[in-house]
Amino acid sequence: MTGKKVSAAIVTYNRLDLLKESLGAVLGQTKYLNHVIVINNKSNDGTKEYLSSLTDERLVVFNSEDNLGGAGGFNQAVRLFAEKTDDDYVWLMDDDTIVQPDALEHLVDFAEEHDHVGFVNSQVRWGSLEGNPSWMNVPAPRGFTWQMYMTQKNPAVEVVNSTFVSVMFSRKMVAMIGLPQKEYFIWGDDMEYTNRIADVDRGYTVLNSIAVHKSKENSMPGDIVKEKDESRLWRYDFEFRNRVLTAKRISKHEYMRTIINAFIFDLRFVLFNKNVKFRFTKAKMIIRGIFKGMLFNPEVEYADGLSRVPKRSINALFKARHLAMPTDIFTLDDDIKVIHESKLTDFKGHTVAADRFIEQQMGDFRQ
């Protein structure tokens, strides 16, 4: 139904057997696949040699001289998609993601058949097709409105974020919001990036696009209380720092809520729950990560040669409407209409505060 082209992108580090399986599944897609970008994060297990032996013309291999972390790897992958291909969409995944042959076809078809789609992701199962949901890859549904675009033909659930385990978005979206934040290094870069997209347009989990995540454990994301593997503890320094910045970029309310919850839930449970391993090390990590996050605010990068597209912000639209009509009460249907039909300038001329805010927003892009 469409001639759209897609670059898949896999970030890998020292998991050659899983990479072979993941890459084989991606190359076997039924439709739309045009390139496969593989970011090799300085693996030392034969990954570089294996990739150099492949002859598929669709492959674009980047062997990094340093371990960029997952975040740096995905930053590089999206940059290569934007700067080295003319494909319409980029489809991201880890090296332990095994996609079904028609997974990409369903993602592209849904994105092309519906308006206001910012990103689409797959339904992710853990270990096998018959496994439970992969809990770390279950996105948050958008409150109240997620049922609006479900159909028998191609059902989807509206979500507000996604992990980088089978998620796809467009070239235009990259031009609007920039690249994933490489400074996150590991954990949380996917939440921050898809939250950025969800502020422009809607995200959807396409239920008949299926991926299997072959992670070692089916754990909840960032669960420091239950963590028992000492070799993984270092990751939580990044987890809490990155969590704070992600919240800060959503709203002041979310920023404060995230900091408060880290202290009254994570820190309290680590200190006082029974059978918590590495109790005081974890407590120090939570406190250190939160304070690092308060000061952490790296700039967003943009791909070279990709024409900047003015960014439409749903949060900015709502704030402009509130400033323009501060005493009005709006229904959920009113909110949906704003998302679908409004632009910032629709709220000019009502109040000085609204006009000042709109000019500031438009000025930020012109800079």
UniProtKB/TrEMBL annotation:
InterPro entries: Glyco_trans_2-like (IPR001173), Nucleotide-diphossugar_trans (IPR029044)
Keyword Transferase listed: yes
Protein name (record): Glycosyl transferase
GO MF annotations, alphabetized: glycosyltransferase activity
Family membership noted in the UniProt record: Belongs to the glycosyltransferase 2 family.
Entries under CDD domains matching the protein: GT_2_like_b
Gene3D superfamilies: Spore Coat Polysaccharide Biosynthesis Protein SpsA, Chain A (3.90.550.10)
This protein's UniProt keywords: Glycosyltransferase, Transferase
Pfam families documented for this protein: Glycos_transf_2
Native source species: Leuconostoc pseudomesenteroides
Domain Glycosyltransferase 2-like: start-end pairs: 7-147
The organism's place on the tree of life at top rank: Bacteria
Pathway the protein contributes to: Cell wall biogenesis; cell wall polysaccharide biosynthesis
